[in-house]
Amino acid sequence: MNNRRQFFAGAAATMAGLSVARSALAALPEPVIQTSVDTAPPLVPNTGRPYNPVVTLNGWSLPWRMNNGVKEFHLVAEPVVREVAPGFKVNMWGYNGQSPGPTIEVVEGDRVRIFVTNKLPEHTTIHWHGQRLPSGMDGVGGLTQPHIPTGKTFVYEFEARRPGTFMYHPHADEMVQMAMGMMGFWVTHPKGKHPHISEVDRDFCFLLNAFDVEPGSKTPKVNTMTDFNIWAWNSRVFPAIDTLNVRLNDRVRIRVGNLTMTNHPIHLHGHEFLVTGTDGGPTPPATRWYEVTTDVAVGQMRQIELVADEEGDWALHCHKSHHTMNAMGHDVPTMIGVDHRGLVNKLQRVAPDYMVMGERGMADMGEMQMPLPDNTAPMMSGTGQFGPLEMGGMFSVFKVRKDQKPGDYKDPGPYQFPPGTVAYEWTGAAPAAPSAPAASRGGKAVATAVKPTHSDKHH
C-alpha cells in the first residue's frame, strides 16, 4: 500500500457522546492515508481478536491501534481526487484519501473508538448505518450530536454488538456529501462459530455509487436526482474495476452495499448463490433460496455466498442495461434505421469530423477510437480475448481457476477454454425447419372436452 502517513499529536477532541478518559486522548491514532486505486490485499489482524479479513474491491481496510483493550481508528473527512478510470479523475469528498473511505473491520464484542477529523469546507458527522449503539453515537447532526465543525475532531465510541455487514456515511448536508462520495464499508466479524455464518475461503466487499460528471468537468453535479451518467463500484467504472479472482471450489462471499439513488439487480453468470445476509444481520438458513440475481435497494446491503465450482470467466454486473455504460448522453436521439446515405458528405463539409453513429445500433461505439472530451471515459469499453466487451459502469469479471493458489488474489489473465467449449460459427447447410402441426397447415382443429371424475388426481 502506498500510504502517506500524517500524525496529529495532542489534538483536542470534542466528544460526540460517551465520556473517554483523558489518557486515551493524549494523542490521536495516526491516520493512514491511501491513494492507490488497486485492490489491497486482506489486512490480517496482528492485534485484537483474530478473524478472516475481507478484500475490498479497488479499496483497502483501515489499520487500528489497541489502547487498553479498545480498538482505535482515525478517519479524516477531506476533499479527495478519485481516479474513476485511467486518466479520468473526479473531485470528490471522502475519507483518508479515498472515496469510498477505507473498510473498517472489527470483531463482535470489540469496544471501538473512532476519531473523526473534519477537513471539509463545511461541518459533517458520521452515521454508522445498521449498527446497534447508544443514540448519542448514531451520528445524526442536530438530532443526536452537534455537527463536527471544520478543523475539529470528534470521538465515537461503542461496542460492536452484532456480526454483519454495515456502512458508514454522513448525516449532515447529506445530499451534497454523499453525492460527493462520502461513504464506506463496515464489517463486524463473528467472535466464534455462528450458526448462520459460514466460514469462507474468499470474502469480497464493495459499495455501489453513482455520480453525474459532465465530460470535461471534474466535480459531480450534486443536485442530480435521477440522470446519473457514471455508475460505479467503489467509485470505479469498468474496465477499471478489478476482477474477483478465486480458486476452483472456493466458498466465496460477496458483500454489496447500495448508497445510490436507485436499486441495482446484481447478477452473476455461471453460478447460483444464496443471500446469506442483509443489513439486519445473517439470514437463517431456512429462509434462503438459490438465485442468480439479487436486487439491492437504496440504503440496503446484500451478502451472497456460493461455491465457485465452474471454472471460467463469468460476468458479474448490474442487470439494468444503462448501468453497464459510462458517460451516457441522455439527450442523444435514437438513430436506428435512419438512412444517412448522401447526407454524410454534405454534413462533413460543415463539420469535417462528423461520423455516422447509431444507425445500426450502438455496438460500433465500443470499437471506435474516436477522440473523447477531456476527463471522461468511453461510453462502452473493455476488450476480451474475442474482441470488444461493449460494457462500462457496474461490471466486472468473476474469475474461477483450478490453479489459483489459496490466498492469491492476482488476476490470472484470460481463461483458456478447453477445445470444443466455445460457441462457433456454423458453416454447413442450414438445418431443416421442423414441420408445423397439421392443424396449423389449414386443417380444422378439433377440441374435445373431458368432464373430470372423482377419481381424477390434481397435482
Along the chain, the helix and strand elements come as: EEEEEEEEEEEEHEEEEEEEEEEEEHEEE
Structural class comes to: mainly beta
Q: Tell me, what's the shape?
A: globular
Cα(first) to Cα(last) distance is: 61 Å
Instruction: Specify the helix fraction band.
Output: under 10%
Mean pLDDT: 86
Describe the 3D structure.
- Helices cover 3% and strands 32% of the residues.
- It is built from two helices and 27 strands.
- It has helices spanning 174-179, 344-350, and strands at 3-5, 13-15, 32-34, 55-56, 65-67, 70-85, 88-95, 104-107, 111-118, 127-129, 153-159, 164-169, 184-189, 202-211, 230-233, 244-247, 251-258, 264-268, 273-278, 281-282, 290-291, 293-296, 301-307, 312-318, 381-384, 387-391, 395-401.
- Strands 4, 14, 15, 17, 19, 20, 21 and 23 form an eight-stranded mixed β-sheet that branches.
- Strand 19 (273-278) and strand 20 (281-282) form a beta hairpin.
- The chain is globular.
- The termini are far apart.
- Residues 1-19 and 455-459 have low confidence and may be disordered.
